[in-house]
Amino acid sequence: MFAHKIITFITFYFIMSSCSENKKQEQYFNDLGEIPFDEQLDDKNFTVCHEDLTLPFNYGGFGLIYEGEKRRLVETIKEKFNYPRTKGQTGFITIRFIINCEGQTGRFRVIETDLNLKAKKFDKNVSTQILNITKGLDGWKILERWDKMWDVQQYLTFKFEDGILIDVLP
User: Fold this and answer.
1) 164-169 vs 152-161, strand pairing mode
2) What's the pLDDT score for residue 95?
3) DSSP per-residue letters across 1-63
4) Structure confidence by residue, pLDDT tens digits, 135-170
5) N or C: which end of the chain has fewer CB within 10 A?
6) Contact between residue 169 and residue 156 where contact means Cβ atoms under 8 Å apart
């Protein structure tokens, strides 16, 4: 009985000791999807109003904040996209960015995947074109909630099949 207590105590001691080791911790931002400034990628003239917090695009039920809503956004993109119809250009291109409290966009990040969401590289003609179209969209609205203007994290996901733009999400 006494030996059992000693073994339990020693086991408990080692478990607790291993939990308290100094481990290098990664730095996390305040919310999922934060896009920190990267001097190699970002325009230094683009500023956010609240560096410590940008709201996710769907926070508080405000959804897509584009003039004319999703219908106009998709129409604009499809009007500007020059379809290369390239075999093998199938999958998703997601572009994440921030809309600041003045309705300006910046800090664009591109993620390319196949239909199974595995990393894939698209032909530059497709990915660069869709990034430039996204950067050129000028119908973003300012988000005002709770008597304050907010910066918003936005994403657009483009679905392609053989270079043809099939859908734009969200």
Assistant:
1) antiparallel
2) 95
3) -HHHHHHHHHHHHHHHHHHTS--------SSTT-----TTTS-TT---S-TT--EETTGGG--
4) 999 889 888 878 888 888 899 999 999 888 999 988
5) N
6) yes
